[in-house]
Specification:
The chain has ten helices and eight strands. By secondary structure, it is of the alpha/beta class.
Length: 309
């Protein structure tokens, strides 16, 4: 394994929905020992503290249900700039914070990918597709819009113009089990890979994920992984405000992250939607740290490649 420089970036974004608590996420990850865990795996770890958003722009969205538009736009601008800089220095890990942080993290990573002349691929580990726009959302919660934004959907006029939209065919939505009708209709018209829990029940984790990772490798792509707490079953990870039964087991989630590590392709990572106020003695934060460790080389047993010559 090649040791990496892991750059921890706190993103205490709590504007993407009305239920508060995700702003405590970065401190919970630090308390759960993410830096110490990654150092124990041989990586250099740089903690750059928490990002602070700039001045809030004036809110002028036409959808009256939108929540905290100006605050979310300010976070997006700040995180995109931080992500682009961090990509040049190592492997950034964004400690969230609700999933609205990915409006900034992914757009900044995509700008870096364009700069170095490589395509960006996005592995979205989430119960939801997050493909709404500020114009289509009924809830007004902007944590349901990042995939729509970074792939260049219309309706994001208040947000920074994208330097490099992520091509829809480079996105894999993995673990879906809660997609509303407007999002489902929009996804049906897009060339985006959507792997729902029924697919995983029928075929397992390995086949669809391996196929996606092989596409990333064939294109010499960079890979951004966005891991939402609600990818996991809420019986394992209760510290999220959007619990959806029937999520990934601990073993399935570790297998996903181990395969990501084995591919050697991951170039950036989001850990999002952790709400410590809803946790039970920190077990969700600890599990998310363990999953990050699996993506960066921890395994129960190193299996040497056997020679059959």
């Amino acid at each position: 394994m090649t040791d990496k420089t892991c750059i921890l970036i706190g993103a205490p974004v709590d504007s993407g929905k009305r239920r508060k608590g995700c702003l405590m996420g970065p401190d919970a990850y630090r308390t759960a020992g993410i830096a110490e865990t990654l150092r124990a795996l041989g990586h250099e770890v740089l903690d750059r503290g928490n990002v602070t958003p700039g001045p809030l722009p004036q809110e002028n969205d036409t959808n009256p249900v939108i929540h905290a538009l100006g605050e979310t736009v300010a976070w997006t601008t700040a995180l995109a700039a931080e992500a682009e800089v961090a990509m040049a220095d190592g492997l950034p890990i964004f400690l969230g914070g609700d999933h609205a942080l990915s409006l900034g993290s992914v757009s900044g990573v995509a700008a870096h990918a364009k700069k170095v002349g490589r395509p960006l691929f996005l592995l979205w580990l989430d119960a939801h597709s997050d493909f709404h726009t500020p114009e289509t959302t009924d809830s007004g919660h902007l944590h349901g819009t990042p995939v729509g934004y970074v792939t260049g959907r219309e309706g994001f006029g208040a947000f920074p113009a994208l330097a490099a939209p992520v091509p829809e065919e480079n996105v894999c939505l993995f673990g879906l089990r809660s997609v509303d009708a407007p999002e489902a209709s929009a996804l049906m018209m897009r060339n985006m890979e959507a792997v729902d829990m029924r697919t995983l029940d029928e075929h397992g984790v390995v086949k669809p994920l391996r196929a996606f990772l092989e596409r990333v490798r064939a294109a010499n792509g960079l890979l951004h992984v966005s891991l939402d707490v609600d990818f996991l079953d809420p019986s394992l990870a209760p510290a999220v405000g959007t619990t959806v039964p029937g999520g990934a087991t601990a073993r399935e989630a570790h297998l996903v992250m181990e395969m990501v590590h084995d591919s050697g392709l991951m170039s950036s990572l989001d850990l999002v939607e952790l709400n410590p106020f809803l946790d039970e003695r920190g077990r969700t934060a600890s599990l998310m740290v363990d999953l990050a460790a699996s993506a960066l080389g921890r395994r129960v047993f190193d299996r040497p490649t056997k020679s059959y010559a």
